Amino acid sequence: MELVAALALAAAIAALVIVALLARETLRLRRRLAMLTRDGDGRSLETILDAHLRTVLEVRRRADTLEARTTALETKTRATYRRAGLVRFNPFEDTGSNQSFVIALLDDEGDGLLLSSLHSRSGTRIYAKPVRGGRAETTISDEEGEAIRLARGR
Fold first, then answer.
1. pLDDT tens digits, residue range 118-141?
2. What pLDDT, in 10s, does the model give residues 70-84?
3. Which domain holds residue 10?
4. Is the same domain home to 49 and 65?
């Protein structure tokens, strides 16, 4: 019987040692969990994640707004004169310094205008001609054609 009592005592001591080790490990794990689930301000991981989710949703809303505004601006800028071609020339023998010029102002579709300024000793004349699809609707000079070509990037 003493043997059984000794074995029972040894088993109880072993069980107590195991329980003590498990309690120590549980305490260590609880500390680590508490460290992981709290920030410097003492907030829980759930609170932190909720705040981050709200931030992400706000950023997404702003990104959607910016995308819509960007699309609207891209649509508007297609119709603005974003392409220009300038040619300076001397149309008359009695003048110099290439004071005459023609400028083509076109949008992305090639629509716009030609603005020609012809300078002579007696005065300066300015002419405007419409351009549709990269082509003038009236007869144009070589310089005006060159200005359109420059504006279209060709």
1. 988 888 899 999 999 999 989 999
2. 999 988 888 788 899
3. 2-76
4. yes
How far is 82 from 110, CA to CA, in rounded Å? 10
**What burial letters (b/e) apply to 12-22, b meaning 16+ CB within 10 Å?**
eeeeeeeeeee
Backbone angles phi, psi at 131, to 5 degrees: -130, 130
Q: Look at the chain and count its residues.
A: 154
| Residue that is written with structure tokens 């549980």 in the block | 26
Amino acid, single-letter form, for residue 119? H
Total domains, the chain = 2
Burial class (CB in 10 A: 0-12, 13-18, 19+), 110: middle
Check if the beta carbon of residue 112 is closer than 8 Å to that of residue 92.
no
DSSP H helices in the chain? 2-36, 45-78, 142-152
Are the C-beta atoms of residues 113 and 131 closer than 8 Å to each other?
yes
